[in-house]
Amino acid sequence: MPNRPSKDHWTDVSLGRTDFSLSLVNNFRDRWSCVSLSMTGTHAKASFALVKAGHSGDVESRLAPLGELLWQPKPDAKESAVTVLRKVAPADPATWPDLNAWMAGTMRTMHDLFRPIVKILDASEYVPAPEETLGGPEATSGGIDPQ
What we know:
Layout: E1 10-14, E2 20-27, E3 32-39, H1 44-63, E4 68-72, E5 80-87, H2 96-120
Antiparallel strand pairs: 1-2, 2-3, 3-5, 4-5
Helix pairs in contact: 1-2
């Protein structure tokens, strides 16, 4: 039986470890597409903090050129994410060749960047400072919620 295109507006790609994946999303109504490192589970917030504290320079230098980089701790959710967002009209077939190339390239870059990081990430190493919060101005994404 031949493969059929997905009817969903998203797909997830494994990073080889439970609670970590790459999510590729097309938002037709709000006209954006994104690729996100999704961190879920009981250690999502600790994992997010460790990625940001230990790897933000590399993440910024490799991902910021690909689109709008969003650090999303999502303090009231069971998930945290690092997202590269691109404002585009995914419903317009004329954008598909460029959008497909961007999504594939961004996914490969994020996979190559994050797979070795999440492989060795140890949430027990996270010790929050007493004044530290995972909220603040970075907790929002300017009204865009790619998840």
